[in-house]
Amino acid sequence: MWRLTLFSNVLILFFFWLLAMTAITPAHNLLIQYSDTIQALPILTDVAIVFRSLSILIPLTWAIGTLFWGRKMARLIETKRCESLTAHTSISLCMGLALFFIYLLAGILPLLKIGATLD
Question: What is the distance between the alpha carbons of residues 36 and 12, in angstroms, rounded to a whole number?
């Protein structure tokens, strides 16, 4: 059962990554791909758009790390395994929410016309 929970934690982080990419896509389409003029983007938006394709490394690295974490957990006693599983779930949710909110903020900033820009 704990292996299934580890797998679902990886899927949760991947789901948050998909939501984050969905949140930044309208800003990319509106301001980069289909824009008639070149606008100065907020720094966070510019960085989020540049590293959009590399951000898949976050859930992939977490999935690989989960494999090693699972091997370590297999050798633990049940109470320590539950503690480790709780920590893994908490980290997965916190990383996923942070990733989502950073990309959501990056997608909203140019539409609100706030945020420091690179000139």
Answer: 37
Q: 51-90: per-residue pLDDT in tens?
A: 988 999 999 999 999 999 999 999 999 999 999 999 999 9
Q: Which residues contact 79 (CB under 8 A, 6 or more apart)?
A: none
- Sequence length of the chain is 119
Structure tokens that stand for 40 in this block: 């100065």
For 93-113, what is each residue's pLDDT tens digit? 999 999 999 999 998 888 787
CB 108 within 8 A of CB 26: no
CB within 8 A of 109, min separation 6: which ones?
42, 44, 45, 115
